Amino acid sequence: MPVIVASDLDRTLIYSAAALALTMPDARAPRLLCVEVHESRPLSYMTETAARLLAELGDEAVFVPTTTRTRKQYQRINLPGPAPTYAICANGGHLLVDGVSDPDWHAQVTARLADQCAPLAEVQEHLLRAADPVWVRKHRVADDLFAYLVVERELLHEDWVKELAVWAENRGWTVSLQGRKIYAVPKPLTKSAAMREVARRTGAGLTLAAGDSLLDTDLLLAADQGWRPGHGELADTGFTAPSIRVLPDRGVLAGERILRELLGAVRGA
């Protein structure tokens, strides 16, 4: 039976220049491969070793990129290895099959959202009204499923995020602060549900997962085994569980370590 590897992308497998965490002397820094270009500029990287490991992983398992990015944002990424048959975008709102969103899955998701939580328009209106223009740089809606703010982190009051989380909780939504983005996401919109659907379609006998943020929690707990790096929201909160391996590595080298461990688990299955 096939093995599924469902992994978050940003700050798990791929890294912006600001997130690389190259703390070693320059002469010992790893060689990097650019895997995303946006508006003619390089945006995301992985080490060349990580790129090789990912290509090997794609040959030996069902690799499923699993991201909160919109479909358009995901499609900017050019990952090494075979093109994934399945990809999970918009935090589970879209299940791509050979690059195309599965309409039946998307319809199921939108029906759950309509039934179980407050509408997006209400949340978006609250964000527009409550966020301070002093630290907000952008208001965004992702694939008509959830909303997020791009902020100046050093000007942001952490208490505001906590207050937003309480407000959202009462309406069936969750809040996550990742780098310069504050996400407001409906609780039924999960990566784990989409991963389970891929497992059902492929008849997978084992599911492996990796991620660094609060929005990856359900994915890691739903998998048979999970990995998280030494950075990110989950590390900041000390999150762990019996099935999750906590790695000390931080930055782009954590992505390399995660891929090495995932590949080892696939080969040992």
Automatic annotation (TrEMBL):
Listed Gene3D superfamilies: HAD superfamily/HAD-like (3.40.50.1000)
Protein name: HAD family hydrolase
Organism per entry: Streptomyces levis
